[in-house]
Design brief:
- The complex is a heterodimer of chains A (494) and B (127).
- Chain A is mainly alpha-helical.
- Chain A has 18 helices and two strands.
- Chain A has a two-stranded antiparallel sheet.
- Chain A is globular, with a radius of gyration of 21 Å.
- Chain A starts with 6 loop residues before the first helix and ends with a helix.
- Chain B has a single domain, classed as Helix Hairpins.
- In chain B, α3 packs antiparallel against α4.
- The longest helix of chain B has 32 residues.
- Chain B is elongated and about 65 Å long.
- Classes of the chains: A mainly alpha (494), B mainly alpha (127).
- At the A-B interface, α5 and α6 of A face α2, α3, α4, α5 and α6 of B.
Chain lengths: 494, 127
């Protein structure tokens, strides 16, 4: 019983604890808040890295909160896939927080800055807990913390458009949360337990009764809204494009994926009778929605004039990829989906932070304004180009690896059509990404648009951007570090 | 006859549908929030009725109480958390309604959202 068994709970509670303590610091020394906020997240990242080798790919770490045995107490059930996603969350939230100091210092007025960091830590802690928990009511609670803090963060500036976007998000997000709560109620009424492992055992004994069928569908719809699966995505483009850039990076790069992962959890760890009509039928419906998402998101992204809007629609399309990987029901497909969560998180966060750099320095949001940006902001432009390659899925980047496994998984599952759609999605991505790159590098800017003295974003903003974009390259070249374990873990989940 | 026996579940579902209908159909955003609260209340009602027992007593094992008559405390404990969550969502949403009304001068969701396209481009640029 080493101390490392306690690491998962510290990873979750440290950011939450930080969120409680920050307002006091903000009251005394407001200027220290951005630095102090790094501390809990940095510690969480470190603990996660220390935990990395200790959880086997075909096992899990079960931690009992307060020492209460699982079916009665709350359990934290961390398997390899969960730890992987927790590390992705830690890493990206940490980098976006480093970026936040300068950006938020300019965008958000004084009184709200401490609130921003408090909400930020709440959001990060909730995402970590959401991934790790093994209790279905606890899952709901973390989802609500996560949703509430993200509603507030979208609207943090208090201007017209952000508040409206956040309100639209609430109008879709809150009913979906209630659906999840109702589904939890149904599950509890049918089985008398809230622990996921216990639920799985009892559901396997009883088979699917009507109540369980309804609750599964409610869960899919509820998490589908939060994960912005195609027909339920309406809130995403507004909220993600209007939020402050570091928040866009979190919402687009992590929150959506974490919610998709909750669906993986529900499907693979709770409703374990996978050959049944219920799971297969739902998977078919979700698959069709995901195909629509890939194509619709790609086409809408091409049509956008606003850079952040384009990246947001690209997220709609990439959520489709992740769901296509999940519905393939093969180890390769699931591995592809998990790896896509990593590289989509890195690349999307990088793109949004680059867009943030343009807004921070020049206030440019429209794609047309970026003509000739290369001449003045080369570092930002190169990072943007590298991340775009990963979004498209061009070989040395991580995007290629995940797309490869997604396609392989769908082909192995006999779903040729989906594999073709995945390829078509890449072509659409190439169109919308390369257009921006073409504008940046090969077009002359308008008179006076870029003619100040050579001035890129400050190092505190460039460092996170470059770390993210180099990480997409690193995980593309050294994919063998993670892929074998992920394959094993995916086979174990299946 | 099972439905008659379990009428409280049916009532909860009817309330849920009323709430969902209100959220989707009503155009006034405050009415939408009321619909949201009706949905939440219906789910709370469903949970609490799960643990209900005719003539039940508090589940305290210390005395010589009869365990068969004790109510199930878990749904109530869950719903306490649920109520806290619901109140926070409502409070946040209402504070946003105030901001929206100050800036747009309307509570009609269609008019709020219709101003979308030109505003988003314009407002975005000046930020």
């Amino acid at each position: 019983m080493g101390a490392w068994r306690h690491f998962p709970i510290f990873m979750i509670t440290l950011p939450l604890l930080g969120a409680v303590l920050l307002p006091f610091l903000g009251y005394a020394r407001e200027r220290w808040v951005p630095y102090a906020a790094l501390l809990p997240l940095g510690t969480s990242t470190l603990l996660g890295l220390l935990l990395m080798g200790r959880i086997p790919a075909d096992g899990f770490l079960s931690y009992h909160l307060g020492g209460w045995e699982p079916p009665f107490g709350i359990e934290i059930r961390l398997d390899y896939v969960g730890l992987f996603l927790m590390l992705v969350v830690c890493g990206i939230t940490f980098l976006a927080l480093v970026y936040s100091r300068r950006y938020i210092g300019k965008e958000v007025s004084g009184g709200q800055r401490t609130a921003y960091y408090v909400l930020y830590l709440l959001l990060s802690g909730a995402m970590l807990g959401f991934v790790a928990t093994g209790d279905i009511f606890n899952l709901f609670v973390f989802m609500e913390i996560l949703a509430l803090s993200s509603y507030a963060l979208v609207a943090i500036t208090g201007n017209r458009n952000p508040v409206r976007a956040a309100f639209k998000y609430i109008l879709m997000g809150a009913p979906s949360s209630i659906m999840v709560l109702l589904a939890v109620g149904f599950l509890y009424s049918a089985t008398g337990t809230l622990n996921m492992a216990d639920l799985a055992r009892r559901i396997a004994e009883s088979g699917y009764t009507e109540v369980l069928i309804v609750s599964y569908i409610l869960l899919v719809v509820g998490f589908g809204v939060k994960a912005a699966l195609f027909p339920l995505h309406m809130w995403l483009p507004d909220a993600h494009s209007i939020a402050p850039s570091p928040i866009s990076a979190l919402l687009s790069g992590l929150l959506v994926e974490v919610c998709a992962f909750a669906l993986v959890r529900i499907t693979f760890s709770v409703f374990t009778l996978r050959s049944s009509d219920l799971v297969m039928g739902t998977a078919d419906a979700v698959g069709v929605a995901a195909v629509a998402a890939v194509l619709y998101g790609g086409i809408m992204a091409i049509l956008q004039k606003d850079l952040k809007m384009m990246i947001a629609y690209s997220t709609v399309s990439h959520v489709g990829y992740i769901f296509l990987g999940i519905t393939a029901f093969t180890a390769e497909g699931l591995t592809g989906a998990m790896y896509h969560m990593l590289d989509h998180g890195l690349a999307k966060a990088c793109l949004f932070l680059c867009a943030g750099n343009f807004i921070y320095l020049k206030g440019y949001r429209r794609i047309e304004d970026l003509k000739g940006a290369w001449s003045q902001m080369p570092w930002t432009c190169f990072a943007f180009a590298l991340a775009s390659l990963s979004v498209i899925g061009i070989p040395p980047t991580a995007g290629f690896i995940s797309k490869w496994y997604l396609i392989l998984g769908n082909v192995k599952g006999g779903k040729w059509l989906y594999a073709v759609v995945l390829l078509a999605g890449s072509i659409l991505a190439a169109v919308y990404c390369l257009r921006v790159i073409y504008y940046m590098f090969f077009q002359a800017g308008k008179e006076g648009a870029w003619e100040e003295s050579w001035r890129d974003a400050p190092p505190a903003m460039l460092a996170p951007v470059w770390t993210l974009s180099l990480a997409t390259l690193f995980f593309g070249i050294f994919s063998s570090l993670l892929i074998p374990s992920l394959l094993k873990a995916a086979a174990y989940l299946l | 006859m099972r439905l008659l026996h379990n009428y409280h579940y049916a009532a909860a579902m009817v309330l849920f549908c009323v709430g969902l209908y209100t959220v989707i159909v009503r155009r006034n955003i405050i009415k939408k929030l009321i619909g949201l609260n009706i949905m939440e209340t219906s789910v709370f009602f469903f949970f609490v009725s799960l643990g209900y027992l005719d003539g039940g007593i508090a589940p305290i094992h210390a005395g010589a109480a009869d365990p068969a008559r004790m109510v199930n405390p878990i749904p109530q404990a869950l719903i306490l958390t649920g109520i806290v969550v619901a109140v926070s969502v409502t409070a946040l949403a209402l504070s946003m309604v105030i901001l929206l009304y100050r800036q747009y001068g309307t509570l009609d969701v269609d008019r709020l959202m219709r101003e979308e396209e030109p505003e988003a481009a314009e407002g975005g640029k000046e930020e």
